[in-house]
């Protein structure tokens, strides 16, 4: 927790789906890492 705000750090994040859900749940993403550019592509 930083300043009473929940934080998250994601490694091997893929298309960031879990991270988007965590943001909607009130978490603040401090770092999101994905080395594979193909894994980050989404069609929305």
Give me a quick take on this structure:
The protein is an alpha+beta fold and 44 residues long. It has one helix at residues 17-24, and strands spanning 7-11, 28-33.
Query: What is the typical, i.e. mean, pLDDT?
Result: 86
Q: How much of the residues is beta strand, in percent?
A: 25-35%
Task: Report strand order across the widest sheet.
Answer: 1-2
How are helices and strands ordered from N to C? EHE
Instruction: Characterize the overall form.
Output: elongated
Count, helices: 1
Give the CA-CA distance, first to last residue.
31 Å
Query: How many E-type strands?
Result: 2
Structurally, the number of domains stands at: 1
Low-confidence stretches: none
**Helix content range of the residues, please?**
10-25%
Describe the largest sheet.
2 strands, parallel
Cα Rg: 11 Å
Structural class: alpha+beta
